[in-house]
C-alpha cells in the first residue's frame, strides 16, 4: 500500500465534452492514500463520467490525470485498481461463484482469492446461486467482490448503494467502512448526503460538471451555527444579512441557518426583536453536510425565493 502521502488520484483541469454538451468542466480532484473519498453531487452532475475517465473507460477531452502515478487504463494501473462503474454486469445463468472464477481466470488471480472476496462481501452462503436469482443488494455486493479480486490498492465505486433498500444500504456502508479501515483507498460517488457523511473522510462536491468544494468531513461535523425560526422570515433574513453578511445566512424551509459564533446568540436575538421579528426558536446546532451541499449547489436566486 502507498503510505507516502503522494496522491493516488490527481486530476487537474479535467474536461469532457460530448458534442455541444460539457459533461465535466475543469474538475480538480485529489485522493490521498488510505482515505475514503466521497464524490458527491446530484444525478447528472458529472460523477460517473469522471469515474469512467479515471478507470480508462473513456478518454478525457482535456486535463492532466494521474492514477497510482500512471495513465488511467494502462495495464500497470489497472492491475492495482478495482472498480464498479454503474450497475455490475455478470452472466445471469452462472452462479456468483462461477462468475468470479471466470473473472479470476482472465485477471490471472489465484482461485482461492475468489473465496476470500466472497467472504469479505458476505456472499459465501449464496455463492452457488445463479446471478439472476440475486437481489439487487446481492448483485451490488458481487460487483464489489469482483472489484476486490486483484487485492487492489485503489477501489472506485460508482453509486454503490443505488437502488438498495435500507438494510442493503446499511450492509454496503459497513462493507465500505471495512475496506477503508483495512488500509485501502476508496473513491466512491454518491448523491446521498447522509451516506457520504457516515463513511467518508473527505468529500468533493460537483455540480453541473464543476467541482464546487472539497472538505474534510470531520471538520464539517465540528462546525457550529445558529438555527433561527422567526416570523416574518423575510424580515429576519434581511436583518441578519445586514448584521452578518449575505454568505452567513441561509434559508432551509421554515428556518434560517446562521454561520456565526453561537456565543453571539443573545446579540442575534436582540437585533431581531428590535426589528419587530417574533423569534420562536434560536439555538446552536452542528452543521450538517446537507447544509453545505445546498449552499454550494443552489443559486442565490433560488435560495432567495419565498
Automatic annotation (TrEMBL):
<dbReference type="GO" id="GO:0005524">
    <property type="term" value="F:ATP binding"/>
</dbReference>
<feature type="domain" description="ABC transporter">
    <location>
        <begin position="9"/>
        <end position="233"/>
    </location>
</feature>
<dbReference type="Pfam" id="PF00005">
    <property type="entry name" value="ABC_tran"/>
</dbReference>
<dbReference type="InterPro" id="IPR003593">
    <property type="entry name" value="AAA+_ATPase"/>
</dbReference>
<keyword id="KW-0813">Transport</keyword>
<dbReference type="InterPro" id="IPR017871">
    <property type="entry name" value="ABC_transporter-like_CS"/>
</dbReference>
<dbReference type="InterPro" id="IPR027417">
    <property type="entry name" value="P-loop_NTPase"/>
</dbReference>
<comment type="similarity">
    <text>Belongs to the ABC transporter superfamily.</text>
</comment>
<dbReference type="InterPro" id="IPR003439">
    <property type="entry name" value="ABC_transporter-like_ATP-bd"/>
</dbReference>
<keyword id="KW-0547">Nucleotide-binding</keyword>
<protein>
    <submittedName>
        <fullName>ABC transporter ATP-binding protein</fullName>
    </submittedName>
</protein>
<dbReference type="GO" id="GO:0016887">
    <property type="term" value="F:ATP hydrolysis activity"/>
</dbReference>
<keyword id="KW-0067">ATP-binding</keyword>
Amino acid at each position: 500500500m502507498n503510505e507516502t502521502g503522494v496522491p493516488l488520484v490527481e486530476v487537474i483541469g479535467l474536461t469532457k465534452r460530448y458534442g455541444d454538451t460539457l459533461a465535466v468542466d475543469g474538475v480538480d480532484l485529489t485522493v490521498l492514500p488510505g482515505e475514503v473519498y466521497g464524490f458527491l453531487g446530484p444525478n447528472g452532475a458529472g460523477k460517473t463520467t469522471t469515474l469512467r475517465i479515471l478507470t480508462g473507460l473513456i478518454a478525457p477531452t482535456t486535463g492532466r490525470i494521474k492514477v497510482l502515478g500512471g495513465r488511467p487504463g494502462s495495464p500497470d494501473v489497472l492491475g492495482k485498481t478495482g472498480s464498479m462503474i454503474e450497475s455490475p454486469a455478470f452472466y445471469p445463468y452462472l452462479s456468483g461463484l462461477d462468475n468470479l472464477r471466470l473473472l479470476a481466470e482472465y485477471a490471472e488471480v489465484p482461485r482461492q482469492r475468489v473465496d476470500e472476496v466472497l467472504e469479505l462481501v458476505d456472499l459465501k452462503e449464496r455463492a452457488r446461486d445463479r446471478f439472476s436469482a440475486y437481489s439487487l443488494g446481492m448483485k451490488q455486493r458481487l460487483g464489489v467482490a469482483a472489484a476486490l479480486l486483484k487485492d487492489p490498492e485503489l477501489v472506485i465505486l460508482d453509486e454503490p448503494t443505488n437502488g438498495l433498500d435500507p438494510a442493503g444500504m446499511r450492509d454496503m456502508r459497513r462493507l465500505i467502512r471495512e475496506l477503508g479501515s483495512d488500509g485501502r483507498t476508496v473513491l466512491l460517488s454518491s448523491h446521498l448526503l447522509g451516506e457520504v457523511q457516515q463513511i467518508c473522510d473527505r468529500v468533493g462536491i460537483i455540480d453541473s460538471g464543476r467541482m464546487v468544494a472539497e472538505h474534510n468531513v470531520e471538520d464539517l461535523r465540528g462546525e457550529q451555527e445558529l438555527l433561527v425560526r422567526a416570523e416574518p422570515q423575510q424580515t429576519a433574513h434581511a436583518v441578519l444579512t445586514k448584521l452578518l453578511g449575505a454568505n452567513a445566512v441561509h434559508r432551509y424551509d421554515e428556518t434560517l441557518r446562521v454561520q456565526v459564533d453561537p456565543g453571539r446568540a443573545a446579540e442575534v436575538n436582540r437585533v431581531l426583536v428590535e426589528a419587530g421579528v417574533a423569534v420562536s426558536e434560536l439555538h446552536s446546532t452542528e452543521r450538517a453536510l446537507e447544509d453545505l451541499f445546498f449552499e454550494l449547489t443552489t443559486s442565490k436566486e433560488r435560495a432567495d425565493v419565498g
